[in-house]
Structures are given as C-alpha cells and as structure tokens.
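Structure in, sequence out. Go:
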C-alpha cells in the first residue's frame, strides 16, 4: 500500500532522515514515535506530498485513498458540523444541501423541476447518501456532539470541536490509509474511549502519531521509531516496543563499545608503525580497514531523564484541605448534597468517574474556585494551594519572553537549570526568546507548568496536566511529581501518569464519593475493570462505598431501601432484549441499503435512512439506560 525507500531529508545542516525505509500494508496499525523534533510530522508531509524528499521515493499503491488529520486546527467556512462530517466527496455536501432544502420546503428555484429533483436523488443514492448520513451522525455522537449541534455553523465552535468534526469526516469517508497526528488531543475521556473502540474495527490501515501510551497499547500492532535518522520497526504495541528497544539498545551499546576498542587498537598500530619502513605497508592496511568499517553511531542518551532537582515547598499540616457537609448545584442540576471530603498530607489522589459526575467541580471546590451553596471548605495549617487550570492563563505576562517568564520566580534556580527544564517541555533554542503573547494555547500550558514546577505550592490541584505534552514532556512531569513532597489531587485520562503517581483513588458518581485506599492497580482489581482506561469513567464504585465520608470506609446508609432484586433483573433483561432486537434491525437495514436496487429506489432508501437514524438514537438511549440499571443491579 505504501512504500518509502531510501528517503533522505535535510533542512540546512540538520538531517532528519538518511536512506530511511518503511513498508506499510493493508490492515497495518502502526504507531509512529520519536522525540520532539525527530521528524514525525515531516514524515507525514513527505507521504502526503506536501514537500519532496531530497533523495528516495514515496510510492502509494494506485487507487489508494489517503485521509489525514493534522495536529492543529483545520479550515472552517460556512458549513455546518454535519456538512463537515459529510464532506467525503466534493459533490456530496452540495447534493445534501439541495435535498435538505426540498425537505424543509425551501428549494432553490433552479432545482424545482421534477426531472432535476429525481436526478439529484439518483446521484445521492449512488453515493449511498442516506446510509452515509446516518453513519456520520452516529460518529458525531460518538465524538461528543449532541443532535442539536449537527446543524450549527462550525465557525461558532472552538478549534478543538472543529477538529472533532473533521475527524468524523475521515471516519465517515473510511480511507484505505488513515493518517492521524495526535488525534486524542481534542477529545474528552468518554469520546476518547469511544474513538479507541471504533478504530479497533476500522477496515483500513492506520498510521498514527500519539503521546498517549494507553491509546497506542490498545490500538497498534507495530511501532515505527525515528532513530539515528532511520525508521526502525518493532512488532507489538507500545509497551512491547519499550522492552524490545531496551534489548536492542543493550546490543547496540555492546557492539559500539567493541567497535570503538577495535578502532583504537588498529589506530594504535597505525600511529606506532606508520613511520617505520618495514611496517608501513601493514600500517596502511590497518588504516584502510578502519576507513572501510561501517561506523556505528554512539548510543543516544536517555532524553526522558530531567537533570534537575525540583524545588520543594514548605511542609504543611497533616490535614491539608477538607469539605464539610458541602452542597453544590449548577441551577437545577444538583452535583453534591452534604458531601464530606478530607485530604491528608502526602496523598496523591486521582479523581475518576463518568463525565458530568462532578470531578472538575470537586477539584474547583477544593481550590476555592467555586463557593459551596451550603457547608464549608477548609484549608489546613501552612497550606498554599495551586490550581493548575488557573495557571494556564493567570500566571503569564504577555510581554515577557518564555525565558524571562520562567525566570520570574522566587525560587533560587540558575538560568541554565531553567533552560534545561524548558527544553524538557519543548522550549529549546530560539523558542525561549518568543514572547508569551504569540504562544499557542498548548505552549502557554507547558510554560505555566514549568513555572509551577519551579516554585510549587504544597497542595497541587491539577486538571488534565498532561494535555498538550509529548511523551518526553510527560516523563519530565512524572519525574517532577515523583520528587514532589507536597500533596497532589488531580484528574487525568493518561493511564501511565495515573499508575505512576496515584496512591489513592476517589470515584465520584451520582453525588457520592467512593474511596479506594491504594494505587490505580488496586482500584482496577477491586472494581474488576474491563480495562484501565474504561475504569476511569465507570459509572459506579464497588468498594468502600460512602455517601459523604470519602476519607474513611463505610457502607451504604442502612435506611436506604434495598432494590427488589428480581424486579431489577427483569428490568435489565427487558432492556437487553430490546437492544438486541434494535441491533438486529440495524444490521438488516444496513444490508438493504447496500443493495443496488435500494439505491435506485429513492423513496425506499430515504425511508430506510430515517429508520436507521431513529433506531441509532433509540439504541444510544437504551444502552445508556442499560448501563445505569445494570450498575444498580450490581449494587443491589
């Protein structure tokens, strides 16, 4: 499907690729990795023809459709969200608009004649229009869009939501080769889980750049690393790649040391005898032997380690922060009712639970960014709190350079140490002289994180701190947080980050808090989770259930009426039967829509398209209801 042979690419004196090669076949699931600046996005550009290679060839098999999602925002015009998702061909959206105008009773006068009407429907059916439309809506829903968003002008949305719409377009189009550059950057956790599951069944090949280890572990079957200006392929997911690379590094180091010794030995002979007539011939032979050697490059240093001791905050009291009988609601939406919560010094707590359950609300209550409707928030002795979301904007002075901003701290840190830390967070070379006002949102987040690490408070409250970070920067943050001697409460969907740091898990759902007094592996074991990522949004806890006292174990309130077990089983079984029937009908509709005779029958294809959309909506409602009722059954 795709072949790269002898690819060389340089920018001035800097060479990214030297005689690099890669073969990608149909069905491949490949993760492309390498340190920042290694050339991952450049490689994508070479494949897509955005720029030429200095040497070598990029060959794509004839009639292979290639789809690409860039890392940064895609262009937006006057189209709606659904129209972006339907833009699978140049003609498709135009036909969709004409048909939609007719259905709404506002046809273009030039399109009113019946023969034109039929011609439009015939062409729309040839493109399998009604099936594609229903598919696009399903994908948009999976990526977090509501039905009411479908007809919204895309220009009204943030850049992240526009990227989701373009991602929906690619998934609707289903190109033979799907190329994704950091596709999870703009997804919330539930959308990410849906997207990850969807890609597992994707019919084409996938080439993806991602900093998300869990995503790569779940999806890819091979890793291609950019290293020593080559493309090195490893079989397996990211975790297997790390083990294989460690073994390969050990072999490379041994071979390099052996070669260095051999060259030194040969060179010593040359230096000793080159001026001696009886040995001159042998000396020249040894010199030619050195010249003919295929020289191994020196092993790369481990760029994951940050050579910097992070400043430590002053010690706080044992009881750091607490909520006492706190009630909180957004309008009519009651989030917490009489909740008690307490954080002890040295705890590293991760907050988990479904979207909308109150994780960010809890974090903001602890940070004093939200005021309780009733109850109190208290702060312990000698506690200084820092809330990371606020730092992204409020900490930075627009007129300063990156370096000036990083140095503007009370911590006693040398300029070189600050430069080293900035480099770990992707600010190197001349980029440290960029003004804050011209930085992107991701760059500002990284700079704010650097400032926080240079002078941290002793209570850190962090909401998705790994967003916009690549793997080496995440490792730098992990190193900093491992050294951190204060208290940490955080939300993250980065499983690697959570597993490395958390020593306690708090699950929030339905206004209730559940404590798990152990690390994330303990939480997974106690909840019998299907996967580490799915457990982050699980709807109900299974251990040490508490209505308010998340700081101590307890049982559900004794006066709470116990569910009728048989009745609850019947509810769940009824839902399962209805879901099964709807899924069977969807399969039948899809099969009929794919028949040529259905395409040629406009009224029938439209009827099936509407029925498919109705069933999809109903199925989503029932699936959500089933999750709730099955969870209640588990707790009953």
């Amino acid at each position: 499907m795709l072949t790269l042979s002898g690819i060389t690419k340089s920018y001035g004196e800097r060479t990214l690729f030297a005689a690099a090669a890669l073969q990608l076949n149909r069905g491949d699931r490949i993760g492309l990795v390498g340190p920042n600046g290694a050339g991952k996005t450049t490689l994508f550009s070479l494949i897509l023809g955005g720029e030429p290679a200095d040497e070598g060839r990029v060959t794509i098999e004839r009639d292979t459709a290639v789809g690409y999602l860039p890392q940064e925002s895609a262009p937006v015009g006057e189209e709606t969200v659904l129209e972006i998702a339907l833009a699978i061909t140049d003609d498709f959206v135009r036909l969709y608009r004409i048909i939609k105008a007719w259905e709404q009773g506002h046809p273009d006068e030039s399109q009113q004649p019946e023969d034109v009407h039929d011609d439009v429907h015939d062409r729309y059916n040839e493109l399998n229009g009604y099936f594609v439309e229903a598919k696009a809506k399903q994908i948009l829903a999976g990526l977090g869009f509501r039905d009411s968003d479908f007809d919204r002008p895309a220009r009204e949305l943030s850049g992240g939501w526009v990227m989701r719409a373009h991602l929906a377009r690619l998934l609707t189009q289903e190109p033979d080769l799907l190329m994704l550059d950091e596709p999870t950057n703009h997804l919330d956790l539930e959308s990410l889980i849906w997207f990850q599951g969807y890609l597992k069944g994707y019919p084409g090949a996938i080439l993806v750049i991602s900093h998300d280890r869990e995503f790569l572990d779940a999806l890819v079957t091979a890793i291609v690393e950019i290293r020593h200006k080559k493309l090195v392929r490893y079989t397996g997911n990211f975790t297997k790649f790390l083990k294989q690379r460690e073994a390969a590094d050990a072999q490379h180091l041994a071979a390099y040391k052996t070669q260095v010794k051999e060259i030194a030995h040969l060179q010593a002979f040359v230096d000793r005898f080159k001026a001696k007539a009886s040995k001159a011939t042998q000396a020249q032979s040894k010199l030619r032997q050195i010249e003919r050697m295929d020289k191994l490059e020196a092993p790369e240093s481990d760029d994951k380690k940050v050579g910097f001791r992070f400043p430590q905050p002053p010690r706080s009291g044992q009881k750091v922060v607490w909520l006492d009988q706190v009630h909180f609601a957004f309008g009519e939406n009651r989030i917490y009712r009489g909740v008690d919560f307490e954080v002890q010094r040295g705890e590293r707590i991760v907050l988990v639970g479904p979207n909308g359950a109150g994780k960010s609300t809890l974090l903001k209550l602890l940070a004093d960014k939200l005021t309780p409707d009733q109850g109190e928030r208290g702060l312990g002795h000698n506690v200084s709190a820092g809330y990371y979301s606020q730092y992204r904007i409020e900490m930075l002075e627009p007129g300063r350079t990156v370096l000036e901003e990083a140095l503007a701290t009370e911590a006693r840190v040398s300029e070189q140490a600050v430069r080293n830390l900035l480099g770990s967070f992707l600010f190197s070379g001349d980029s440290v002289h960029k003004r804050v006002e011209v930085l992107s949102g991701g760059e500002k987040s990284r700079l704010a994180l650097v400032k926080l690490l240079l002078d941290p408070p002793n209570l850190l409250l962090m909401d998705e701190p790994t967003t916009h970070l690549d793997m080496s920067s995440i490792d730098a943050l992990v190193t900093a947080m491992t050294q951190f001697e204060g208290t940490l409460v955080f939300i993250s969907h980065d499983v690697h980050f959570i597993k490395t740091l958390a020593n306690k898990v708090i699950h929030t759902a339905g206004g209730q808090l559940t404590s798990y007094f152990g690390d994330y592996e303990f939480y997974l074991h106690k909840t019998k989770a299907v996967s580490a990522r799915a457990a982050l949004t699980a709807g109900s806890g299974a251990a040490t259930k508490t209505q308010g006292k998340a700081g101590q174990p307890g049982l559900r309130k004794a006066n709470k009426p116990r569910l009728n077990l048989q009745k609850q089983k019947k509810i769940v079984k009824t839902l399962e039967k209805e879901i099964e029937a709807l899924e069977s009908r969807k399969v039948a509709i899809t099969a009929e829509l794919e028949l040529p005779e259905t395409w040629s029958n406009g009224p029938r294809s439209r009827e099936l398209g509407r029925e498919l959309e109705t069933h999809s909506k109903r199925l989503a409602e029932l699936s959500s209801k089933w999750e709730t009722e099955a969870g209640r059954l588990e707790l009953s």
